[in-house]
Task: inverse folding
């Protein structure tokens, strides 16, 4: 099976690609001109923001794993252009030149409303206020209405494999309530979820995937040696960034790294 992977050199893609190669997939990666092709993959020169480069990238593939996204920037125009318009361009290319390919898109648990009354479920109404999750919701809509064989995987906080993501957390949450809990997933289980999607287990579904134990940012910060100010004040949005992953489990997903504590114990950080 030949895959096209976008975002293969990003935080998630850089760690997913070797696992897909090891699993026996033939991987083609979309790279801007001049970028070095990762080992074990075939390069397709192009950019999701340049539609003319995409037909050759998608021809002959059995599936597209769309990871490319823009997140941490104040440039909201770039976020919308990359996440919504770039996805639209890739969908158009797939529709014209690889209409039978599975189109698997990574999305985010940030789409769920801050004041959700329970852990985020795939059928909850979503109306995010920030550009990144709002642009991902718009991209999800483009894909759901495309007529392609699609699946959307909403990932929570991704960590592990030396990516530095968890280690950077304290500087982003220093003003948060310390009791705020969030769902997490290790890169190893990102690969597990994507392989299930490639097998068709998630066809035409939005699916949350997460490990088994949402952890408070107070505990996560402490695990990293950063001390947060304690508080017993009521937590106003207790389900923010906490997702319900029971649908994924009913479809066969089982996290191999069940908790952040297991990852630390087994030196998978």
Result:
């Amino acid at each position: 099976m030949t895959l096209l992977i976008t975002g293969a050199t990003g935080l998630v893609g850089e760690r997913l690609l070797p696992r897909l190669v090891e699993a026996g997939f033939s991987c083609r990666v979309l790279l801007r001109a001049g970028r070095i092709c990762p080992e074990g993959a075939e390069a397709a020169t192009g950019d999701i923001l340049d539609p003319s480069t995409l037909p050759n990238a998608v021809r002959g593939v059995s599936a597209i794993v769309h990871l490319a996204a823009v997140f941490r920037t104040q440039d909201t125009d770039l976020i919308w252009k990359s996440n919504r318009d770039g996805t639209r361009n890739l969908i158009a290319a797939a529709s014209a030149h690889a209409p039978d390919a599975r189109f698997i898109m990574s999305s985010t648990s940030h789409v769920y409303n801050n004041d959700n009354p329970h852990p985020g479920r795939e059928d909850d109404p979503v109306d995010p206020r920030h550009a990144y999750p709002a642009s991902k919701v718009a991209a999800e809509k483009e894909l759901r209405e495309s007529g392609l064989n699609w699946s959307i995987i909403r990932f929570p906080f991704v960590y592990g494999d030396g990516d530095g993501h968890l280690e950077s957390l304290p500087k982003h949450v220093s003003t948060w309530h310390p009791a705020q809990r969030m769902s997490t997933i290790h890169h190893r289980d990102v690969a597990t979820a994507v392989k299930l999607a490639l097998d068709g287990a998630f066809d035409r579904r939005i699916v949350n995937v997460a490990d088994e134990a949402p952890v408070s940012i107070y505990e996560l910060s402490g695990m990293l040696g950063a001390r947060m100010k304690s508080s017993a004040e009521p937590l106003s949005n207790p389900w923010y960034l906490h997702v319900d992953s029971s649908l994924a489990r009913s479809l066969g997903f089982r996290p191999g790294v069940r908790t952040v504590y297991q990852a630390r114990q087994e030196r998978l950080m």
